[in-house]
Specification:
By secondary structure, the chain is an alpha+beta fold. The protein folds into 2 domains: 198 residues, 2-Layer Sandwich (Beta-Lactamase); 52 residues, Orthogonal Bundle (Arc Repressor Mutant, subunit A). Strand 4 and strand 5 form a beta hairpin. The longest helix is centred in the C-terminal third of the chain and has 23 residues. The protein is globular and about 60 Å long. 44% of the residues are buried.
Length: 279
């Protein structure tokens, strides 16, 4: 499949075939081959990594940091949480009545914070250990949004039976790594019931990661404090400057759909003509 991860649509994925291959290889503990017809290659590769790392698809309990370790991670990632967590809350509000949980993890895949207003989904995710301190690296949870995005260091969508662990197969995860300069410092992930998946989720989350990166850079370099809205506008303006106002090229650079970028530019009152004139 030639589409980038943020453009994955349900109709593009053979979920029934994926489920059959999951049962054949993952559930039975048979070594996953290098390729599986009908299964996206990045998922096959992740299944292989997860299997080789010893992830257990039916484990009743994932690895979890103890209270002392969790507290240490929260302290060490206080700037990341301070900058990124408001975005989690904004996502939750923007999703309206659609059930979802938005989570923030640190660089190794351990969940730090979560936001969500749908109480039924919150209870369900708690039952599936999607709480602070849980290790969502591929070696612990297998193929999943956080672990796979961090392993590949790029945005990913993991749909239903593409998840390695059985308890996440009714869900969709859309995740993207967070960077401070060139360094990956964490990950944002949206989890929702599979049937509610909307491919625009990935565009929203990818724009947010660029805005968070801009805010992190500003705080570290100048000690300045910007609003999240200003940081998102800075990220968009910088992309327009680098591409001379070419929206298609900027969309590729930001790894978001062109339609999402046009919408964000309109919201911020950013004119592409002004940037084309500069070139």
């Amino acid at each position: 499949m030639s589409r980038s991860s943020d453009q994955v649509n349900l109709e593009d994925v053979d979920l029934e075939r994926t489920q059959r291959e999951w049962v054949r290889y993952i559930a039975q503990g048979i070594s996953v081959p290098e390729r599986l017809d009908g299964v996206r290659q990045e998922v096959v590769d992740s299944w292989r990594r997860s299997q080789q790392a010893g992830a257990r698809p039916f484990s009743g309990r994932l690895r979890r940091a103890d209270r002392r370790e969790t507290d240490r991670l929260l302290r060490n990632n206080s700037l990341l949480i301070d900058v990124a967590f408001p975005y989690l809350k904004e996502f939750s509000t923007a999703m309206g009545n659609r059930p979802c949980q938005i989570t923030l993890a640190e660089a190794s895949g351990i969940q730090l914070r979560r936001a969500g207003t749908d109480l039924e989904l919150v209870r369900m995710t708690e039952q599936r250990q999607m709480v602070e301190g849980t290790d969502f690296s591929e070696s612990s949870a297998g193929t999943n949004g956080i672990g796979t995005a961090l392993a590949l260091q790029k945005p990913v969508v993991i749909l239903g039976p593409e998840h390695y662990h059985s308890m996440y197969q009714g869900l969709v995860c859309c995740a993207a790594p967070l960077r401070d300069g060139e360094k990956v410092v964490g990950c944002i992930n949206i989890t929702a019931p599979l049937e509610t998946y909307d491919s625009s989720m990935m565009g929203m989350i990818t724009v947010a990661t660029h805005a968070i990166a801009t805010e992190l850079e500003l705080r570290r370099s100048r000690g300045g404090i910007r609003t999240l809205w200003e940081s998102e506008g800075d990220a968009l303006a910088a992309a327009m400057t680098r591409t001379g106002g070419d929206v298609s090229q900027a969309a590729v650079e930001l790894d978001v759909p062109v339609s999402t970028l046009y919408r964000k530019l309109r919201q911020h009152g950013i004119s592409t003509k002004a940037y084309r004139a500069r070139g």
